[in-house]
Amino acid sequence: MFKTVALVGVTGAVGRLMRQLLEERPLAAETFRFLASARSAGKTLTFRGREYAVEPLTKESFQGVDLVLASTPDEVAAEYLPAAVEAGATVIDESGYFRMREGVPLVVPEVNPEAADIDRGIISSPNCSTTQMVLALKPLHDAARVRRVIVSTYQAVSGMGVQGTQELEESTAARLRGEEYRHAAFAHPIAFNCIPQIGREKEAGYTSEEMKMVYETRKILGDPSIQVCPTCVRIPVANCHSESIVVETERPVSPADARSLFEAFPGIKVVDDLPGGVYPMPNTCTGSDLVFVGRIREDISRPGGLSFWCVSDNLRKGAATNAVQIAELLARRRFGAK
Amino acid sequence: MFKTVALVGVTGAVGRLMRQLLEERPLAAETFRFLASARSAGKTLTFRGREYAVEPLTKESFQGVDLVLASTPDEVAAEYLPAAVEAGATVIDESGYFRMREGVPLVVPEVNPEAADIDRGIISSPNCSTTQMVLALKPLHDAARVRRVIVSTYQAVSGMGVQGTQELEESTAARLRGEEYRHAAFAHPIAFNCIPQIGREKEAGYTSEEMKMVYETRKILGDPSIQVCPTCVRIPVANCHSESIVVETERPVSPADARSLFEAFPGIKVVDDLPGGVYPMPNTCTGSDLVFVGRIREDISRPGGLSFWCVSDNLRKGAATNAVQIAELLARRRFGAK
């Protein structure tokens, strides 16, 4: 088993969930440690029946730590995680900072588990909107070679962390009372509105969130020739990202074939009965670790093309669950854990 | 001027707005009449400073009427509007019932005004999600010939009429109080959720709303070879539909060219400054008669392709405004009205 597992960023939305997942799941370690910014340090938390003090994150925090699970903003990851690697740890990082670095594995365990096979260093977990898409694309890519993806996202406010959720609730309540609300988490009002920008402008008129879907997809699927055209939109949904996806493959994939491929792939659940009004939605997918696929149909604008709808819990499979699954993958590889 | 203009369905969301628009705009008639279902008949309303009784809609309602503006469910349109045509009227119909009929013009005045040049009969106004898209596509089609469109919609609840708006507000308030809500207007909860189905299953795994975007686009642009792959999604937004659109044209269109084409086209307003956080959103477009376009950029998955974001008030340009503009077009043609 691991000697010392350190969780970094334990008071954020994803950090809390990682802790909760580790309560439920069997990852074994002699010691757990919980690190957060100075603001949160000193708080106590209960984990697997024991009380722990939250320690302040410093560059000296990682002595004797062999595994780090980190969920922090990019700049915090950049400043502190290299110290963990120097101290000998393997770091599973939720931030975007190291993802596209040469030599840093970017891992979705169902898709490219072999990439996680390193002894120390940083393993990045992808951006939430990439993870669910790439998991759905993988069986199609293996069977028919994905060439081009056009995706429009419908992203929940929980992707902005605790503040995002709070702002949706408070601003919606204010709007229903006819009151003004000073928004802060989002650049524009989110109550009963949608915002076609997530992240900053990155390149060619695309946002940083959108370009993550381009570059991370290529890296995870190991195919730099895959073309992706993304549009990322924040909508007033509490939790779970939804994606409208159109795929062009080298060899045609019928909707029936796609359904079979999705059903046979680990981590995907097909929920698809349009006449019955059955398809994945945020309110039915929240709290699950799976990626849900529905509205599977031919792209009627292109023979042999495919269109589908994909929903997943962005805090779980899109973040915390994926990180914990990477840790479990390492435990199996290194210690033969089941 | 027109002798008698009859408004049908005056108590619905679109009917009310048509009345309001006719208050503001100069369409001239000797007489106006206001018709609605038996349930609403007998109410009185004030229009241009006069009181009117709402009359019950019957097949005998149309004697002496030369222009009808109708906003009703499909089955009401099917039953009553042919009687108006028999009585000699020109009928501008918001419903979907006649739109795809051979010989029935389907008109967006900025796009295909010539189609409205009939002496009597039905002129259909397109589905709201089609109208805004086709208006944005028209200058691209004229300049470079649109071949394929991939569109994902973010549709407001006001498209379901007064009940849709009420259900969003009530169910959201209930959810914020932690209470259950029995939804009725929508098949699934809409509060903080999104629903990837609008209308019934129509064909090939697509919904009726989606197939409207295919067939109506071809008819309005007069080009049956245009391919459209639509995904229509209801989101918890009060008013204004948004659309993420990717277009393939025969000749390449640069983002700069597209911007110039949009800016020069009547009825379109370009709102596009991503670094400044400026783009169309429902909360900034509601109440306008224009179609707003932003996020204009190259489709990075295909050289020469284009992607953009399009928002419009679905009750106004998507319905009431378009119908009133068709009436104004007829008035100009027939009476030289300005």
Task: Provide an overview of this structure.
The structure is a homodimer of 338-residue chains. Helix content of chain A is 31%, strand content 25%. Chain A folds into 2 domains: 142 residues, Rossmann fold (3-Layer(aba) Sandwich); 184 residues, Dihydrodipicolinate Reductase, domain 2. In chain A, helix 1 packs across helix 8 and helix 3 packs across helix 8. The mean pLDDT of chain A is 97. Chain A has a 6-stranded parallel sheet with strand order 5-2-1-6-7-8, sandwiched between helices. Chain A has a 6-stranded mixed sheet with strand order 12-9-13-16-15-14. Chain A is globular and about 60 Å long. With 338 residues, chain A is of the alpha/beta class. The first copy, chain A, contains 8 helices and 16 strands. At the A-B interface, strand 9, helix 4, strand 11, strand 12 and strand 13 of A face strand 9, helix 4, strand 11, strand 12 and strand 13 of B.
